TrEMBL record:
<dbReference type="GO" id="GO:0032259">
    <property type="term" value="P:methylation"/>
</dbReference>
<dbReference type="InterPro" id="IPR041698">
    <property type="entry name" value="Methyltransf_25"/>
</dbReference>
<keyword id="KW-0808">Transferase</keyword>
<dbReference type="InterPro" id="IPR029063">
    <property type="entry name" value="SAM-dependent_MTases_sf"/>
</dbReference>
<dbReference type="InterPro" id="IPR050723">
    <property type="entry name" value="CFA/CMAS"/>
</dbReference>
<feature type="domain" description="Methyltransferase">
    <location>
        <begin position="39"/>
        <end position="134"/>
    </location>
</feature>
<dbReference type="Pfam" id="PF13649">
    <property type="entry name" value="Methyltransf_25"/>
</dbReference>
<protein>
    <submittedName>
        <fullName>Class I SAM-dependent methyltransferase</fullName>
    </submittedName>
</protein>
<dbReference type="GO" id="GO:0008168">
    <property type="term" value="F:methyltransferase activity"/>
</dbReference>
<keyword id="KW-0489">Methyltransferase</keyword>
Amino acid sequence: MDRNLIGDLAHADHPVAAPLADDTVDALLRHALDGQRSVLDLGCGDGTWLLRALRLQPGLHAVGVDLSGAGFERTRTAADAEGLGDRLALHVADAATWSSDERFDVVLSIGATHAFGGLVPTVEAAASHLGPSGRLLVGGCFWEQPPGARALEALGAAAGDYRDLASTVEAVRAVGWEPLDGHVSSLAEWDAYEWSWTGSLTRWAVEHPEHPSSAEVLEVAAQHRTAWLGGYRGTLGFVTLLLVQRPVH
């Protein structure tokens, strides 16, 4: 089965593709969107963040870009049913190379740092789409504690792939951005996300035993669960930062 489709199935019950609770997502969006008129989401997944943003901010214009496009039609249908469809545009394209003449009041990129080569490159890429006095809302991983061999093997990562939390924030500041707000995902948020990710795939496989990809999907869920529980649980962290550009004096 196509990996993008597997990813879409995995997020059936947790469409926000990051370890964030619903109330946290809404709180971050309210702060980021306060008084703003347009938002771009780079690596938007199925567009869930944008749909939630439109619900929260009347008059907001929302644009999303994702290489997969899995789930776009579902999100467009939901937006149309709620009378929000005329304010939502979703594009199937590489978020790292997509370009537009439009500049946005807010640019989001949550859990998509792999598309840009890390958190700092994500910040810099997102900033290129931002209008004057705009805000960035970015989210990515860091090390909650120094990673051991099991965590690195489970993630297929190297110790240098991420920093600790303090160094992560300082790396963003070093390229000219200051945090207005932030959220460090709790272990409970991580657990809820991972149980949902693996459980959604398991349920689909059990409910579709005759599908030619049923065994494959069940194995993906099992491998992911083993990597999480036996490898990176409690070691890999996730931080979401609301950023503004530092004034030049």
